[in-house]
Design goal:
Layout: H1 2-26, H2 40-49, H3 58-67, E1 70-74, H4 81-95, E2 102-107, H5 110-124, E3 132-136, E4 139-141, E5 148-152, H6 153-162, E6 169-174, H7 182-197, E7 202-207, H8 211-219, E8 224-226, E9 234-237, H9 245-258, E10 264-268, H10 272-286, E11 295-301, E12 319-325, E13 339-344, E14 347-354, E15 359-366, H11 369-376, E16 384-387, H12 409-420, H13 434-446, H14 458-465, H15 470-481, H16 485-496, H17 509-516, H18 525-540, H19 546-552, H20 557-576, H21 589-603, E17 607-610, E18 617-619, E19 625-628, H22 633-641, E20 646-653, E21 658-664, H23 667-673, H24 676-681, H25 686-701
Helix pairs in contact: 3-4, 4-5, 6-7, 12-13, 14-15, 15-16, 15-21, 16-18, 16-20, 21-23
Length: 728
């Protein structure tokens, strides 16, 4: 009985505890987004959120959002605006029971979109992929229950092709507007038109001063919420601008480490190439330093470049991290609270497009005052910022709009597509250069993307479905006619993804070239890319480590995996629009000829001729003379086999005066594929006269026949018909 009595008392005690739990559970606060009780972590994070500078503006923001269609929020990094404002917008949509839609927040970097989604899901105490999601190129993590989605600005633009009025959304948040990317500027221009037709839609633009003043001027009488900026620490300027600011920055980083002062270091250099070089130098120097100083770790932080944006974690003890970065990376430091020192070279390298030459050049110039102020505030009030330029130097106020410095042919194609969707006007903050716009429209006309009235043609509509530049899109569509779509899918993916070639380390150029020569194809670099991709895919089926395989051949594994994902995406699009995809036939003469035809269908504007047999290539369109890039297959074998007379190239860079990704073609194949009105408009030259002579001889000697995909392997390229391609 005693035992039974003890059991009864134990059961009674458990029942009382259970009753207490139920009583406590009745008082639990439920999450308004998923209906579940908040976790203890939610309340801890809530206390952290309330310390952010943006928090005290919460009530004012909600009031302005309710009463205005457009709202501008101006503040630097470290204010919390990128994490808190999207959450408040979600609460605003919830208050209306999502009658007008959910929230989307655009970012300029893939990494930023993912990191913010993960952080916001944590703060809101909900699941990533359900209530909170993200969409970046080649990766989507969301569901039908998603109420707040982070995405890159280019993803949101493509979404507008199928939903031009953004009817799925109640609030659109445009973050990092001060960076003035092409996609963000186009979004801001189109949204002004959308708001006229969607009175319930809200647009929130997050920017940094003084770019917010430009937005205010553009949008007129709209409210602007100015956030208090974090206090900057001690700012130390150099007495004069140094030509070797790169080495000055590295020496200063090493001196900081030797000083034993605690804290991580952020170094801002001019370009990605400098970031790679700096990491190698610092890693080498750190290995020579005394162990008593602690470990020095160089961390590259370059968003948008494969393998150069590692996951940021807590700083390990007795280790100092040196984050080495360049432009457009400032906002990534919201995750890092350990930055005590900032070293700013004050310069950046940007690609500037010249529409007259149809090529880009690298320009080194000062950063903007906007960027400089953001960098100074990364250390907080107790840190130090070393500016390697004089205090009285005149910096431009804002970051130059990229739409004024880029090839806007893809943008023109997109806007033509939006015209067919009912949005006929894009109110640009900075209107594109008229010469650049005319060149873009002319190029679309040459590619048969426009009809006689200047509207998007059927070909143009299909081209706009592909997330490729217009020339590559046209080449891929042509490959469906010439039975080489499988190979062109690979070429398109490899040239769209980051380069798979790793820059040769110092002293290892010969060894790297020896490894790469194993993949080289006699027809040219485009064919070499197919070889690399096919070999990479075969390595997946073998019991070997892919990353190790890539390291052995000095190839970037991440870039090849990205190419694989892009190829799968393009394949799905071709199947969706019911275009034929041929079986692989790589390695046959017939297939090689058809690949060249498909390439010429898109890249007939990028043809060059070796005028003296020594590698001086005369480009027919701009009459410039350039050399083949040293990493090209032709560059490696020129001394043995000589260079081809006529080539097609993928790109031309004015800075090093080199053409890249080069493939041999015949003048007959070029004449077969080139639109006649483009050929007539080519400037006079000896090369054009040679082509005209071939064309005249062909007209008088042979009857013109409609070209068909080559069907017999033994048929040589010279024996092919020179008629125009039917897809023109």
């Amino acid at each position: 009985m005693a035992g039974n009595s003890e059991i009864s008392e134990g059961e009674l005690k458990r029942e009382e505890e259970s009753d207490d739990l139920f009583e406590f559970g009745d008082d639990l606060e439920l999450n308004q987004f998923d209906g579940l009780p908040y976790s203890s972590r939610y309340y801890r994070l809530l206390q952290e959120r309330k310390t952010l500078r943006v928090w005290k503006y919460r009530h004012e923001f909600m009031t302005l959002l309710e009463n205005n269609q457009i709202l501008i929020v101006s503040g630097t990094t470290k204010t919390g605006k990128s994490t808190q404002i999207p959450q408040w917008c979600a609460e605003f949509c919830l208050s209306a029971q999502y009658q007008h839609g959910v929230v989307v927040c655009s970012q300029i970097q893939r990494r930023q979109a993912v990191d913010l989604a993960l952080r916001v899901a944590d703060e809101m105490d909900v699941n990533i992929g359900h209530e909170i999601g993200y969409s970046i190129p080649l990766e989507t993590c969301c569901s039908n229950d998603t109420i707040l989605r982070f995405c890159t600005d280019d993803v949101l633009l493509r979404e507008m092709m199928s939903d031009p009025m953004l009817e799925h959304y109640g609030v659109v948040v445009i973050d990092q507007a001060h960076e003035r990317t092409v996609s963000t500027d186009v979004l801001l221009g189109l949204l002004r038109e959308v708001l006229l037709q969607q009175p319930e839609l809200r647009v929130v633009v997050l920017s940094a001063p003084p770019a917010s003043d430009t937005l205010l001027t553009h949008y007129g009488n709209v409210p602007c919420l100015h956030l208090d900026a974090p206090c900057a620490g001690e700012v130390i300027h150099s007495n004069s601008s140094s030509a070797d600011s790169f080495y000055s920055a590295l020496r200063l980083a090493l001196e900081v480490h030797r000083s034993r002062e605690p804290g991580d270091v952020a170094v801002f250099l001019a370009s990605v190439q400098e970031v790679v070089c700096a990491c190698n130098i610092l890693t080498k120097e750190a290995s020579r330093m005394s162990v008593s100083l602690g470990e020095l770790i160089a961390v590259p932080l370059c968003p948008g470049h494969t393998g150069m944006c590692p996951q940021i974690t807590e700083s390990p003890q007795k280790r100092r991290r040196v984050f080495i970065s360049c432009s457009q990376s400032e906002d990534l430091f919201w995750l890092v609270d350990t930055i005590t020192f900032v070293i700013d070279t004050g310069v950046e390298k940007r690609l500037v497009y010249n529409p007259r030459v149809r090529a880009s050049s690298e320009v080194i110039r000062p950063i903007s005052k906007c960027q400089a102020e953001i960098r100074k505030r990364l250390t907080g009030s107790t840190g130090k910022c070393f500016c390697l330029y004089p205090e009285d130097v005149q910096l431009p106020a804002e970051i130059p709009p990229r739409i004024l410095e880029s090839n806007i042919t893809s943008t023109a194609l997109y806007l033509k597509r939006m015209e067919t969707a009912g949005i006929g006007h894009c109110d640009f903050i900075s209107r594109p250069d008229p010469e650049g716009l005319m060149q873009a429209l002319e190029e679309l006309d040459y590619l048969a993307a426009l009809d006689n009235d200047g509207n998007l043609s059927e070909m143009g509509i299909i081209m706009s479905e592909l997330p490729l530049d217009p020339q590559m899109a046209k080449a891929l569509l042509a490959s469906c006619e010439f039975d080489c779509a499988s190979e062109m899918l690979t070429i398109a993916a490899m040239l769209t993804a980051p380069s798979c070639f790793i820059e040769p380390p110092v002293g290892m150029v010969t060894e790297v070239m020896r490894c790469h020569v194993k993949f080289q194809h006699p027809e040219g670099d485009h064919f070499t890319l197919i070889n690399i991709y096919n070999t990479f895919k075969r390595s997946q089926k073998e019991p070997c480590d892919q990353e190790q395989w890539c390291e052995e051949y000095f190839l970037c594994c991440d870039a090849l995996q990205t190419s694989d994902a892009i190829r799968a995406q393009l394949t799905d699009i071709l199947k969706r629009i019911e275009l034929p995809i041929s079986e692989p036939a790589f390695g046959t003469k017939t297939n090689a000829l058809n690949i060249k035809r498909a390439l010429l269908a898109g890249y007939f504007m990028q043809i060059a001729r070796d005028v003296d047999g020594s590698g001086n290539y005369f480009m027919l369109l701009n009459k410039h003379v350039a050399q083949v890039h040293r990493l090209s297959g032709y560059g490696a074998k020129a001394h043995k086999l000589g260079l081809p007379e006529w080539v097609l190239f993928h790109e031309y860079n004015l800075s090093d005066n080199c053409i890249r990704t080069v493939t041999q073609i015949s003048p007959q194949a070029f004449l077969q594929m080139v639109p006649q009105y483009f050929f007539c408009n080519l400037p006079p030259s000896e090369s054009k006269e040679i082509l005209q002579h071939i064309l005249d001889r062909d007209r008088t000697g042979n009857a013109r026949t409609k070209p068909q995909p080559a069907a017999i392997e033994t048929k040589t390229e010279e024996a092919e018909s020179h008629d125009r391609c039917v897809i023109q």
